[in-house]
Prior knowledge:
The structure is a homodimer. Chain A has 7 helices and 3 strands. By secondary structure, the first copy, chain A, is mostly helical. Chain A has a 3-stranded antiparallel beta sheet. In chain A, helix 3 packs across helix 6 and helix 4 crosses helix 5. At the A-B interface, helix 2, helix 6 and helix 7 of A face helix 2, helix 3, helix 6 and helix 7 of B. The structure holds a DNA duplex.
Amino acid sequence: MSDEQRLKFDDPALKLWLRILSVTKLIENEVRGNLRESFKTTLPRFDVMAELYRYHPKGLRMGEISQNLMVTNGNITGIIDQLAKEGLAERSADPDDGRVFVVRLTSAGKKRFEKMARLHRDWIDGLMAGLNAEERDQLLELLSKLRNSLPERLDKAHE
Amino acid sequence: MSDEQRLKFDDPALKLWLRILSVTKLIENEVRGNLRESFKTTLPRFDVMAELYRYHPKGLRMGEISQNLMVTNGNITGIIDQLAKEGLAERSADPDDGRVFVVRLTSAGKKRFEKMARLHRDWIDGLMAGLNAEERDQLLELLSKLRNSLPERLDKAHE
DNA sequence: CTCAATTGCTTGACATTTAAAATATTTAAG
DNA sequence: CTTAAATATTTTAAATGTCAAGCAATTGAG
């Protein structure tokens, strides 16, 4: 009983998960601050624009965006509303399916994103510079293995 | 020009960062759903309780909680308000410094957390089961190296 | 065809989060 | 002592997020 009484935090899997979380938060917060200072924009908006940029000019359905970014549907509705109001993205009806909206960046949106993306890439390069190429590859490999081992059900995006 | 014109996403550091993010989100969403289904609670509440549990019985200041969890101050105020209302945590004034509140789990809070933590640990064990012990250690090692290489300024928590 | 089930998206209620301003207390310089 | 600066927390406003319910369009079993 006395060993079960006091919960420990030294389960190796748990420790690994907490380490993943802390690295993620540290970098995420840094990027969030940089986006705000350099471009007066937010991380979620940047993420959506990146997703749209990657798939322009074909565009993406609302549902594809939320699936790929792993957030809920209603969330994306609001962010696209904003981007649309700012003239950075636009919805267009799908001629084959009346329920679907296809979202694309406007040319202003593309131009804006390209400006942000170059700096963003530099930030990430800088933050990852503590690992050499081999370590980076190893880390990527291990994370890929972990991701691919997760229950299929979790991974609706896939890539 | 033609190579710069069309932005690429294949920068190795960027690819690694996106992989870290996707693994994090997949696991986080799974845990969030499990907490809701099994305990009708939320991930942020669980995180705060875990942090408090780890440091009971000494308790933590509001600011220590937000620093350790890497979220903003105002955020924690609301969550502690909730936990206090539910009788799971309590604030007490610091006799030496009138600005400070020290927060502790109540015994009900401790008991509740222990119940959740065991299941939570099992979920994480399950989600990490795709890696063997050696891979897990390697991954932890690489993430630690990455975290320690990040600018000091980012890491106010430290552990 | 017909209609129940499914799908894609939006809406609404509410919780979380950040960022910045406000409040209260302590510290420290003079 | 006085008072400006620093610190700890809360409050506020705006954005983001989940979840569930709702609506409209499509699908598919009969």
